[in-house]
Fold this sequence. Notes:
Elements: H1 2-16, H2 29-40, H3 56-71, H4 73-85, H5 90-100, H6 120-148, H7 153-168, H8 187-202, H9 204-214, H10 226-250, H11 262-279, H12 291-303, H13 316-331, E1 336-338, E2 341-343, H14 345-373, H15 377-388, H16 397-400, H17 403-429
Helix pairs in contact: 1-2, 1-3, 2-3, 2-17, 3-7, 4-5, 6-7, 6-8, 6-9, 7-8, 8-11, 9-10, 10-11, 10-12, 11-12, 12-15, 13-14, 14-15, 14-17, 15-17
Amino acid sequence: MFVFTSLVAIWTALLALPIASATGTVTPLADALFTAVSAICVTGLSTVDMATQWSLFGEIVILLGIQIGGVGVLTIASLLGLTVTRRLGLRQRLLVASDTNPNRTARGASESQAVGLGDIGGLLGAVAVSLLVIEAGLTLLITPRLMADGMDFWHALWNGFYLAASAFTNTGFVPLAGGLESYLGDYYLLTVLALGVFLGSIGFPVIFALYRYVVKGSPKRRHLGLHAKLTLATTLIFVILGWLLITSLEWNNPATLGAEPVGRTLFDAWYMSIMTRSGGLGIIDPSEMNGSTRLVLDMLMFVGGGSASTAGGIKVTTIAVLFLAAYAEARGYQDMQAFGRRIPTEVLRVAVSVLIWGATIVLISTTAIMHIAGTTLDETLFEVISAFGTCGLSTGLSEALPEPGKYILAATMWAGRVGTVTLAAAVAATSRSRLFRFPEERPIVG
């Protein structure tokens, strides 16, 4: 919490400098703070025009912010330490472990983890390599498309790298004037952006597990763990479910998908389903969607992406564990099970805490902004969940909010990115032993 807050303060000061704005003037504190939080928390919401507000210096500061926020502060620190000292001690391994899995802080946590302490060095290597390779690959795919639109090579390369970083870190900032409006129906560019968002949202532990599974090695190293299977399965379920719901609910809406050919309707709905879960690089204005569709988007944004990923939300594994617990209870099983593995009840304890924490943040922020700005529940809830889930989709409310509302929304982004992980770590670490137990008595539930 201290590190993230300090980074937000530094980035706010940098973005408030005259050199950071395109006009050479001081950016108002509320806008500088909001952009800094949005960058560090890889959200993508903005109160200014990202294509015209910032100078080259400002864009570089923002890009550094989304890279640090996307990869993880403790992981970045460990990578730098490994580069300098050429070794990775136990303290550094535990730091990275706690950055990727809050349950590591629990007393007596077993080594039946998604990534063992002995694999932390490999995970760090996977983080560095995937960041460089994936963003470089996305840049190489995007740059020629921008050049085909008339951009010179250097501008196309810079904007291509900006879009690649924004996609892989699931931020959603667009440096182009008019956003992605001029690329509606461009299957090539939008598919590349969707691929970048998907790879960033599944999480570095899953990328590392897939790498170990694909490359040659011992049968043990080729084993795909429960976390990777659960993340990939739940992610695909939510992508398909979102795709079907968006398609059906917007099929007859002439302002969105109703006026498009069938092929483009299906493609745009699939693209929005991926972006809604944290990407934020939208091509359809949410304010023109039906209220029922926005409610579906609210749920998808609240869930978000994979744990230890560049995505936000309460995470797909959290919701998966809750559904597995409900299924086990309905079938009368004592244990939660998935893919031939038993999930300990400590994981359910953390999942319930994260869900309640997230719902509480959304409720408080929505109530406060509605009272201050006099906005409706529908538009306020959408903006707040987008901020909490670090998604970045917007109905335009962020720019129209008064300064107190911007500060509340910025605090919501901070809590959504930092608070859920911190709470999960705190819950996992608060296992106390007692020499006595109270008598048991069961309340009526349900």
